[in-house]
Write a structure and sequence with these properties.
Blueprint: E1 4-8, H1 20-28, E2 31-34, H2 37-46, E3 53-55, H3 61-73, E4 78-81, H4 93-102, E5 106-110, H5 115-122, E6 130-135, H6 140-151, E7 156-161, H7 166-177, E8 181-186, E9 194-199, H8 200-207, E10 216-220, H9 225-237, H10 241-249, H11 255-266, H12 270-280
Parallel strand pairs: 1-4, 1-5, 2-3, 2-4, 6-7
Antiparallel strand pairs: 7-10, 8-9, 8-10
């Protein structure tokens, strides 16, 4: 029988943030695939785990995934761990999972810490609807395309950033999105955890004097419904009511329903639109 791949969430800072199930699994599997064995050995030593490790990282993820799949096919059980948090979230783990499924290998996830969710819950911003962007693309065209998409985003956004890129990324985001409310988190779960509820403008003023240090999670407020409504109203006000009505009628919408939509777009009552159309006759 084939072995099982266990996706084991490990602490993002505080070593106490690990489940009994993960600890037991790390002790019982045949092999641990770690993003950085030099980093992960500290965790294993802390909990006196002697299971053999092998490296699995961004630069060997395709060939090493194939190698691990062959081991799994022979019945070897493997635990995948990342440097911090849940494997597969903004790390090479997704490639191994993909290859395992293609080979018919059983995969299971052992839940635990994730920096994106920890930061979101601390942000004080709406959490009902959110999207995770991880690190913005390094390639200029792809990065610009993502920023254009984020301009329209109504959900709360989560972005990761390294300290040496933080200021330039905040500047790009403010240029694209305007001066939104944001929360910047660093050193999550650690002794000097920082949750900075601010705006793009205030954050840039702060980091003009303070050098960014540590890994950052930026939580960004999505576009407000009122803002979108006002923008739509301005767009439609540039057209006549007749043109506005024609826009919906050409889609096969009934006159009654078209008047309802026009009144909504323009922020006026349906009676006003009806009276305007009557006066034209």
């Amino acid at each position: 029988m084939s072995g099982t791949l266990y996706l084991c969430a490990t602490p993002i800072g505080n070593l106490d943030d690990i489940t009994f199930r993960v600890l037991n699994t790390l002790k019982e599997v045949d092999l641990i695939a770690a993003e950085d064995t030099r980093h992960s050995i500290k965790l294993l030593n802390h909990y006196q785990i002697k299971t053999p490790m092998t490296s699995y990282h961004e630069f060997n993820k395709y060939d090493k995934a194939a190698e691990l799949v062959e081991k799994l096919k022979k019945g070897v059980t493997v635990a995948l761990i990342t440097d911090a948090g849940t494997p597969g979230i903004s790390d090479p783990g997704e490639e191994l999972v993909k290859q395992c499924y293609e080979a018919g290998i059983c995969v299971t996830s052992l839940p635990g810490p994730a920096a994106c969710i920890t930061a979101l819950t601390l942000s004080g911003l709406p959490v009902k609807r959110f999207c995770f962007e991880a690190f913005l693309p390094a390639k200029k065209k792809e990065r610009q395309w993502i920023l254009e998409e984020l301009k329209k985003e109504t959900r709360t956004m989560i972005i990761y950033e390294a300290p040496h890129h933080l200021i330039s990324t905040l500047m790009e985001l403010m240029a694209a999105l305007g001066n939104r409310r944001i929360t910047i988190c660093k050193e999550l779960t650690k002794r000097f955890e920082q949750v900075f509820r601010t705006s793009f403008k205030e954050a840039l003023e702060y980091y003009d004097k303070e050098t960014p240090k540590g890994e950052y999670v930026i939580i960004i407020e999505g576009r407000l419904f009122e803002e979108i409504q006002e923008e739509n109203r301005r767009v439609w006000e540039e057209r006549s009511i007749e043109e506005h009505m024609e826009y919906y009628l050409n889609q096969g919408i009934s006159k009654k329903e078209a008047m309802k939509l026009v009144s909504k777009d323009r922020g006026v009552s349906r009676r006003d639109i009806y009276q305007y159309m009557i006066d034209l006759i």
